[in-house]
Structures are given as C-alpha cells and as structure tokens.
Design a protein that fits this description.
The structure holds three protein chains of three kinds. Chain A is of the alpha+beta class. Chain A has three helices and five strands. Helices cover 35% and strands 15% of the residues of chain A. Chain A starts with 12 loop residues before the first helix and ends with a helix. Chain C is mainly α. Chain C has one domain. Chain C is 69% helix and 0% strand. Chain C has 15 helices and no strands. Chain C is globular, with a radius of gyration of 22 Å. The chains are: A alpha+beta, B alpha+beta, C mainly alpha. Chains B and C meet through helix 4, helix 5, helix 7 and helix 15 of B and helix 7 and helix 15 of C.
C-alpha cells in the first residue's frame, strides 16, 4: 500500500510532450488572468478611513426607546441565552427605571428579542464595534436615564394631583352626603 | 491505526549472482515511522481538528482524525430552549451555510406543526439557500486552492462571497449567522431592490465562474495535484454513508433536492432550471479529489440556475404562515433531511406537545464525510494528505457541534 | 583528477585585467600620497563590499515591499498603504524594525549552536555569491574568470544552512522542510547548470563581464537570445530551475505553509527569521541578475551604446549600465512574483519528476542544439 505513490507507470512520449505543453500553456493562461487584475483598480477600501455602507436592517448593538418601554420582559423571555436583564419599579402607570442591561459577552445578535416587543421599542442599531480591556464593560446598560423621566414625573404629579383632587372631591361629596344623611 | 514500522535492516538471505562471478548481497534499510500531529493548529485542517498521521518519510502510512475541539453541546441546548429560540444555534454548526441550517431545522418543526408556508416565502427561502450554497462553495473552492498553495483564487472567490454577504446583510442584517428563515416562513420580507441585485449578481457571477475555472480548475499543476488522488470508489462512498458533493464526486447520481424534493426544487428541476452534477472522472479516476471539487464548482452554476428560475416566478404575498407567537408543537416526531452544501443535513425533532423539544438530533454531513479520511489517506504523500482533507471540505463547527 | 581543480583555482586566482576596476583607478588618481600603495586594493574591496551589501539589501527590501504590492494588486487589493505615506513605501523598514525588536526565541531542545549559525550561513552564502556579480562594467568586487560557476556554487551553499536550520529546530515540520529543500536543490542544480551552458557556449566564457561585453554588438542589441535559437528555451528552463533553486512558488515546498506549517522556518522568529527572508529575495535577485546577464543582454542596451559612442563620462556610462542591469533583473523578479501569485504548489515527487525527467532532458537537448548551432556557425564562417 505504501508503495502506491512511488511506483508510477512509465508514461509514453506523447504524454510527456502533452505534459510539457499543458504545464506551459495553462500557466500562461493563469498568468493572463492574474496579469489583467494586476493592472486593474483594486476593489477593497481602506477601512478606518472609508467604511462600507451599513444596511438599515443591520443587527448591531441594541438601542432602546425607553419612553415607550413598559417593562413587559417579552424581550428577556425571547432571548435564547438570557442576556437581557431589566428592572423597574412601577408607580401606578409610570416606571422608575433601575436597569436594562444586555450582556454582550453572551449576546449572539440573533434579533429574536426585537420581534416580540409589543411597543416596538427595542431595536438593533448599526453600531458594531466596541473594544474594551475589561470584561465587565461588555455588560451594556441601554438606559439613557435612571429613575423616572421628567415627563413621567410631571405626568405622575399631575396624575397624583388629579387623584388628590378627585379624592378631595369624593371626600367633599361624601361629606356632603353624610351631612345630608345627618340632616 | 496501522502497524508501526520500527527502524530495521533486513538482509536478503539469497545473494544475487552477478555475471562476473561475484555475488551481491541485498538488504532492505527501513527508517522508523514518524508520528506527527497535524493540528489542532495547522493551516490545512480548516479549524480545530487534529489528524494524527504516521509517516514514512513523506509517505503517510496511517491517519486518524481526532474531533471534539469545538464541541458546544448544540443538541443538548436544543432540548433546553424553546423551539424558535434554537434557531440561532442552528446557524452555528455549519457556519458557512447558515441559511440551509435554518431551513433544515425550520422544516423539521414545520413538519410537526403541519403549517403551510406561503409561496413567496418558499421562493425567497430557495433563493437564500441557493445563494448560501454558492457562498459556501466559494469558500470550499478558495480554501482548496489555498491548501494547494494557490493564494489568488481564494481572494477572487472571497470577492464574490463578499458581495453575497452584503446581499444577505441587506435582507437580514447579519453576514454569517443569518437566522433569517424561521419556522413558518421568514422573519421579514426582503427589502425593495433586493431581488434586482440578486439578478445582477447572477449575471456577473457567470463571468467570474469562468475565470475560476480557467485560473485554477484546469491548471496543469492543480490537475496533477488532485487527479487520481484520494480516490473514493462508488461502493466505498455508499458504504461510508457519504452525502453531497463527496458522494456525487464518486459518480453516484443522488441529490436530495431532486430525489426527495422539498420546497420548490422539484418544480424547478421539472422546469429544467437545474440538473444534478455528477463526477465523471474527467481528469483522472472517478471519485478523485478533482471530481469532488469539480462537483462543488459546477454546482455553483446550477444554483445560479435555480435562483434565476425563482426570480422569474416570484410573486407578491405574505412571507409568514399561520404561526402562534409562542410555539407549542404537537406531540410527535419528524425527520427532515435537506441537501446542505456539504451533504445531507438531517434534523430529527421529537416533541411531547410542549414549548421545548424532547430531542433535537442533528445529522451533520461533515461528520459523516470525515470518517473516510482514515481509509483513503494511507499510501499518499504528505502533500496529498492536505489535498484530501481539503477535498472533503469539512466544517469543524459541524463535525463537533 | 586534481588537475582541473588546480587549473580552476589558478584561473580564479589570476589577477584581474589591468585598468578594469573604476574604483581602484579613481583611488590611484585621487588618493592622498600618505596612503601606502598596497592599501588601495584593500580600500577598494571595502568600498565594494559596502556598496554591494547595501545595494542588495536595499533591493531586497524594495522587493519585499514590491511583492506585497504586486500580490495585493493581483488579488484586487492594495497591499500596504500606511507606513511612510505614499503606498506604504516604508513598510519594509517598519517590518525590519519590528523584527529587530522581537524576542529572540530559541526553542527548547534545539541544537543551539546550529540554530544560531544557520541564518548567518544562509545570508553569508548568498552575499558571497554576489562577489562575482558585477554591478557595472567597471564596477565589480572581483573579476572572476569562472564567475558563473562561482555563483552557482555559492548559491547552493544556502542549502546547507537550510538543512542545518531544519535539523537544529527540533521540530518535525522543520525537518520535513529541510529534507525537501535538500532533495529539491540537488535535483535542480543539474538543469540550472545545463540550461546556463547554452548562453555560456554562445559567449565562450564563464566571466560575466566578458559575457555581457560579447552582447554589445548591433547597437547594444546583440543579446544571446537573438544570436542562437536555443537560448530562448534555455532561458525558460533556467527560469523554472531558478524558481526551484530559490524556493519560490510553485516550488516553495521547503516552507509549504499549508502542508508544513512554515517548513524549516517554523521555529524561527525575529531577526533570524528575517535573515532567511532576506536570503530568499537576495537569491531571487541573484538568479534574475544571472538571467539578465546571460539571456537579456547584461548591461547592453541601445542607450548604453549611444552613451559609449558619444563618449560620455565613464561614471555616467557605468550608472546607465547598472540601471539597465537592475531594471532587467527587476523584470525577472516581477515575473517570479507574478508566477508565485498565479500557480498552486507542486507536490514533492512531482518536483523531483519535473527536475529529473522533464527539465534535465530538455536542458540537455537545448545544450546539444546550441552546441551544434555554434559548431555549424563556426564551420560555415570559418
């Protein structure tokens, strides 16, 4: 078996000449193709200076429209590797944000978190590169603010004020009714 | 592995009588075998695979592939995540043909669900799968040139592959792990102008294909390096359960896309859009390395034919079938084998009616095709060993999963 | 048996023709009288060594950069673009500095002395070969009568260094690489020498200066390729054999990166590795210079002919001649690069087959044909 490669059949003179010709001719044919490219303009771009256009659907680092989010955990549940963690304290209708983090050590950019969102508030952006020498920095917090937004606070105050007014009105009404009963 | 040779000197008992009355004593001098670890970090193994070879000088006397460096428990994960959540994992076993992997898994689950896929989704799925087959064959062709020392065809192949990746990027936003074909159809419809770009690609690709063929496939050195090397006979190919280009390279006319037609391949075949490429032993023996690589290269053009047929017949419509948001798959089991660029990719899914699979078995074509190395590598030279490994076109992500 | 060696040694040792070396002449004229007469040839030698080594090192560095640009453009990319500004011209310098700064690693269990000696031997041998290579008609280091012979001998000395490197590295891949190199060089010495016999027969001399001068007729276009039909095929054979001799693709089996990781270079790093790299490019230039002298007319071109006719200053004439020669060899180097980035690698047994069964008979045929042609010419014109 091990003599397979060493024991070659002797070849005929015709085959010998054919080998010489084929070797010569196909080499020249190949050199014609590569030579043509040698004179053409390259197709590559100089990366840090120029960049490839990034399509709209690119699956890069997430961004969150925090105003819309309702902390429903649908994205976190959809994630195959549980890399999304979110936490918020609910004040009636308003949310006080504690955290919304994506662990990019785990994330595989599958976009499965984007589809189930009922409010269409989590997206994948076009940013793809972040470099760090510390692993803990790979856990990104997507929140643009912590706690409650100004609008939410105003809305909450308004709602509280409304509620207080309502309560007061109710209380007044109740008092009236009581008075009426008494009378 | 085969028996080891120790260094030895053997005298032939009978001296030869020379005409002058002298006697000549003959002896065989045999050097010891050298055991070499080819890999896990070796340029020719296409990933982290180790091939333990025993060589007698340049001659390989035994070879044994060692796997498992890239094992990621893909099948076990399949039993622990929801049906749809497993989809991104399928991208990752044969990372060069993610679309086909998505397709295979989706079809297995769809078979359990019994859901009907809209025709437009089927069309786009076919286009994506075939474009991905071209992209995968380009890598196979390019890296094969690289294995044999031709650097330039590799970069030419990657030039076209880059365009394909951009096309995929426009459709789904990813360049390698697509997760685009989902259970029940597609995640998104393709963006406007996408189909036109694919048509343009097909036109340009035809010219470039001819260039590859002239530059590498018929090059005399390339032919001499691959013809008559690593011959797999028809019987051997069938015995080892080879599939895909490895099987067709040995002259067996078998292609799942035609013989067990799924999606629109049967229809396209009946319409004459493509035909199965089978090795013919054109440059040497039937089933040699050249035939295998030729099947891959020629299949690229057939894929272009299928894509063109799909583009001509595509119609408007929805791209997602009637699928619940949280999948509950009815009880049962299903096996779907599809023609991956490397062979038959089988998905065997078992459900107990819940949200998670009970069993998710994958039959990886690279894994099955790799087994033949041990049989065909002994008796070749070290350079041939590289050519043979290259011609099996293994993707280690899939052999190890 | 001994006689030809003695005769050869005597020929080598014979003093160069009077008034040949321009540097020496200039020194004789302009040197201060305080310098003793015997020191002038020594100073000449020193200057020549410095110039030869500088020029060859510079050419090697330029051609490393050129190789990367050529390969880049063949493959539809740019190659180096940043270092130094214009098309990354300083890339080789940057690489050289980086290689100098790298840790000098000697693998455990290697034969230290041989491991350190091998790169020096390789580089020394190839620079030694340049001793016989004239850079201009009046500027040379040594005017050796058996110049072509000397160059072929010295350039195959590098093989010893490569085998040494492979053996000393204590790595199986290195060993494979060096064994391949030894087998390959032995096989290709024969066609290399035989194909060189053809122009040598036309020239009638082993001396590179005389061979170049013999091509100065017909307004500097009396190249050997035009004088004898067998020189053209011999040139192609010489080119192929030179590719194998210099370990260039498609014959780069000793370092076959996809088979043997990096062959005999596997364990080398830093400046030692760069010595091997330098050697490869210097050997490319050496072979291309040989091809330029014996096949492409040496220093001769119509420009030089005109310059000579007009009796320009000898320094200018010599500069023109040197530029012509380097341009011609540059062409050879370019073709070598072009071939490298086109062809796949040949297998080891095919390399042997090609050397012994194809190139050697063809070279013999060429030599026979050329000899008959020359004999016939001599007979007709006698």
């Amino acid at each position: 078996m091990s003599d397979q490669a060493t024991m070659r059949e002797p070849i005929s003179a015709r085959e010998w000449i054919k080998n010489v010709w084929d070797g010569f001719y196909t080499t020249l044919a190949g050199m014609k193709i590569t030579g043509r490219y040698l004179l053409q303009k390259p197709i590559t771009i100089q990366y840090p200076d120029e960049r490839m256009p990034i399509p709209d659907r690119y699956r890069g680092i997430h961004y969150l429209e925090q105003e819309k989010c309702i902390n429903c955990l649908a994205c976190a549940r959809a994630c195959p590797i549980d890399c999304i963690e979110m936490d918020a304290i609910r004040h009636g209708k308003e949310l006080e944000w504690v955290s919304f983090s994506v662990d990019y050590q785990k994330c595989m950019f599958c976009e499965l978190c984007v589809y189930p969102c009922p409010k269409d508030c989590i997206h994948m952006g076009t940013e793809f590169a972040f470099v760090t020498d510390d692993r803990s920095e790979l856990k990104h917090d997507l929140l643009s603010y912590k706690g409650m937004s100004r609008e939410a606070r105003i809305r909450m105050k308004e709602a509280e004020a409304k509620k207080a007014a309502k309560d007061a009105a109710k209380a007044a009404k109740g008092a009236d009714a009581k008075e009426g009963d008494d009378a | 592995m085969a028996t080891e040779h120790k260094p030895s000197i053997t005298f032939h008992p009978e001296p030869r009588q020379l005409p002058g009355g002298e006697r000549e004593y003959m002896m065989d001098v045999r050097t010891g075998d050298l055991e070499v670890n080819m890999g896990p970090q070796h340029p020719a193994t296409h990933g982290v695979m180790k091939i333990l070879i025993r060589t007698d000088g340049e001659m390989v006397t035994a070879a044994q592939p060692h796997l498992g460096f890239l094992h990621r428990c893909a099948e076990k994960i399949g039993e622990n995540v929801e049906w749809l959540q497993y989809l991104p994992y399928t991208d990752r076993y044969d990372y060069l043909s993610s679309m086909n992997n998505n397709l295979g898994y989706s079809m297995a689950v769809e078979k359990l669900l019994g859901v009907e896929i809209p025709r437009r989704a089927e069309m786009i799925r076919t286009i994506c799968a075939e474009l991905n087959r071209i992209a995968s064959a380009l890598v196979a062709f390019g890296t094969y040139g690289l294995d044999l020392g031709a650097f330039t065809p590799f970069l030419y192949a990657f030039r076209e592959r880059e365009w394909l990746l951009q096309i995929f990027e426009k459709a789904c936003g990813a360049r390698l792990t697509y997760s685009y074909l989902r259970i029940g159809g597609l995640f998104n419809d393709v963006p406007p102008g996408w189909l036109e770009e694919v048509a343009h690609f097909c036109d340009v690709f035809e010219e470039k294909w001819q260039e590859y063929y002239d530059l590498l496939m018929v090059n005399h050195i390339f032919v001499k390096r691959t013809a008559d090397i690593g011959v797999i006979t028809k019987e051997q190919a069938l015995d080892f359960g080879l599939t895909g280009p490895m099987l067709r390279g040995s002259g067996v006319d078998f292609d799942l896309r035609r013989d067990l037609p799924y999606m629109l391949y049967g229809e396209a075949h009946d319409a004459g859009a493509w035909k199965v490429v089978v090795g013919r032993g054109e440059k040497g023996t039937l089933g040699d390395c050249w035939d295998r690589i030729y099947v891959r290269v020629a299949e690229m053009m057939q894929s272009v034919g299928i894509v063109r047929w799909c583009l001509a017949n595509i119609e408007e419509g929805p791209v997602l079938g009637d699928i619940a948001k949280t999948l509950k798959v009815p009880e049962g089991e299903a096996y779907v084998g599809i023609e991956n660029p490397r062979g038959e990719l089988g998905h065997y899914a078992v459900s107990d009616g819940g949200k998670v699979a009970v069993r998710c078995r994958v039959r990886g074509p690279s894994f099955c095709n790799l087994a033949i190395l041990e049989d065909i590598m002994p008796g070749t030279l070290l350079g041939d060993a590289v050519a043979i490994i290259g011609s099996t076109d293994v993707v280690i992500g899939e052999t190890d999963r | 048996m001994l006689n030809p060696i003695v005769t050869g040694a005597a020929l080598v040792a014979e003093a160069p023709a009077q008034g040949g070396n321009l540097t020496l002449d200039l020194l004789r004229e302009h040197a201060p009288a305080a310098l003793p007469g015997w020191s002038l040839p020594l100073i000449t030698a020193l200057i020549s060594v410095v110039i030869v080594i500088t020029v060859i090192s510079l050419l090697a560095m330029v051609s490393v950069w050129l190789e990367r640009k050529v390969s880049g453009h063949i493959q539809c990319r740019y190659g180096p673009m940043y270092a130094g500004g214009w098309h990354g011209w300083a890339q080789s310098i940057a690489d050289g500095v980086k290689l100098l700064m790298k840790e000098d690693m000697i693998p455990l269990g290697s034969d230290k002395a041989l491991f350190m000696l091998a790169p020096a031997l390789v580089l020394g041998a190839i620079f030694g070969a340049f001793v016989a290579m004239p850079l201009a008609p009046d500027f040379y280091f040594a005017d050796i009568h058996l110049g072509a012979f000397f160059i072929l001998g010295m350039s195959s000395l590098t093989t010893i260094g490569v085998v040494m490197a492979g053996w000393a590295s204590n790595s199986k891949w290195s060993l494979y690489g060096s064994m391949r190199e030894a087998a390959q060089v032995v096989a290709y010495e024969i066609p290399l020498g035989l194909s060189l016999m053809v122009p040598l027969m036309v020239a009638g001399t082993f001396n590179l200066l005389d061979a170049s001068a013999a091509q100065s007729d017909y307004w500097g276009m009396g190249w050997f390729v035009f004088k004898n039909p067998f020189v053209i095929p011999a040139g192609i054979l010489f080119f192929v054999a030179a590719l194998a001799e210099t370990k260039r693709a498609p014959f780069d089996l000793p370092e076959a990166e996809s088979e043997l990781v990096a062959g005999f270079l596997t364990e080398y790093s830093g400046i030692r590795w760069s010595f091997f790299f330098m050697e490869e490019y210097a050997a490319m230039y050496l072979m291309s210079l040989m091809a330029a002298v014996f096949f492409l007319g040496g220093f001769e071109s119509p420009v030089l002919h005109v310059a000579r006719q007009a009796e320009w200053h000898p320094i200018l004439c010599n500069l023109i001649a040197a530029t012509t020669l380097i341009a011609k060899s540059m062409f050879g180097v370019l073709v070598m690069m072009w071939v490298r980035w086109t062809l796949p690698r040949v297998r080891i047994d095919q390399v042997m087959t090609m050397g012994y069964k194809y190139l050697t008979p063809l070279a013999l045929l060429c030599a026979l044909g050329a000899a008959l042609w020359e004999a016939g010419k001599a007979w007709i014109f006698a």
